[in-house]
C-alpha cells in the first residue's frame, strides 16, 4: 500500500487532490504558508490546490453583501423570510410556537430558509413538515465534505453484518490510498491484512 505523501509546498497539486487529508492538516498547512486558514474543507482544499499550482495565494473572494437587519416586531405566519436568513432565538420561538417544542433548526431546513427569501414563514413551517416526512421516508443525503460519513453509510449498506470497527479499518485503508474515498467491495481486503 502506497504511503500518503506529506503535505508540503513541493507537493504536486494532482497528487494532493488524490489523497485524503484531515481538515486540521489543511488548516495547519495554510497557516504555515501564510494562506487564509478559514472556511470549510472543500474551500481549504481548493485554496491549497491553487497554491500548489501557482505558488501564490488565490485571489481574495469578493465579500458577501452585508446582511439586511431582520424586520423589527413579531414574526407572523405572513411575515416574509428576510434575505441572508440567520437562525436566532426569535425565529426558534416562532417555529416552536407553530410546530411544537420538538422543533429544531436542522441542516436541510436551514438550507431551505436561506434559499427561499421572500416566501412566508407559513410556507417555511409547511416546508419543515415536508422535510421531516422526507427524512422519515429514507436517509437524508450527506454533504460532499463529509467523506467519512458517506463511506461508513455505504459500507454498512453493502455489508449489513459487519461492525463499526471493521468499517473504520476499511476507511483507514481507503483514505491512505490515492484516488477517490468512496466505498468499494475491494476495501474489505483491509480486514485480511
Structural features, described:
This protein is mostly helical. 48% of the residues lie in helices and 0% in strands. The protein has helices at 13-18, 23-33, 41-54, 89-99, 107-115, 121-137, 147-158, 164-175. Helix 2 crosses helix 3 (41-54), helix 5 (107-115) runs antiparallel to helix 6 and helix 7 (147-158) crosses helix 8. The chain is flat.
Enumerate how many helices there are, as a single number. Answer: 8
List the uncertain runs.
none
Largest sheet: none
Q: Which range does the strand content fall in? A: under 5%
- Find the structural class using helix and strand composition: mainly alpha
The helix content, as a percent range, equals 40-55%
The N- to C-terminal Cα distance equals 11 Å
**SSE order, as H and E?**
HHHHHHHH
How would you summarize what this structure contains?
By secondary structure, the chain is mainly α. The protein contains 8 helices and no strands.
Amino acid at each position: 500500500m502506497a504511503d500518503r505523501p506529506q503535505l508540503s509546498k513541493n507537493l504536486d497539486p494532482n497528487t494532493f487532490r488524490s489523497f485524503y487529508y484531515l481538515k486540521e492538516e489543511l488548516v495547519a498547512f495554510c497557516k504555515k504558508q501564510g494562506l487564509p486558514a478559514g472556511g470549510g474543507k472543500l474551500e481549504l482544499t481548493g485554496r491549497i490546490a491553487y497554491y500548489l499550482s501557482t505558488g501564490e495565494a488565490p485571489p481574495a473572494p469578493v465579500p458577501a453583501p452585508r446582511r439586511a437587519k431582520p424586520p423589527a416586531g413579531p414574526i407572523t405566519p405572513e411575515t416574509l423570510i428576510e434575505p441572508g436568513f440567520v437562525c436566532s432565538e426569535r425565529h426558534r420561538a416562532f417555529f416552536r410556537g407553530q410546530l411544537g417544542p420538538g422543533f429544531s433548526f436542522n441542516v436541510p431546513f436551514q438550507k431551505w430558509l436561506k434559499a427561499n427569501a421572500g416566501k412566508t414563514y407559513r410556507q417555511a413551517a409547511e416546508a419543515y413538515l415536508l422535510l421531516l416526512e422526507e427524512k422519515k421516508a429514507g436517509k437524508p443525503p450527506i454533504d460532499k465534505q463529509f467523506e467519512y460519513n458517506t463511506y461508513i453509510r455505504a459500507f454498512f449498506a453493502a455489508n449489513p453484518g459487519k461492525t463499526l470497527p471493521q468499517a473504520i479499518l476499511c476507511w483507514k485503508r481507503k483514505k491512505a490510498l490515492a484516488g477517490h474515498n468512496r466505498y468499494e467491495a475491494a476495501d474489505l481486503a483491509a480486514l485480511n491484512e
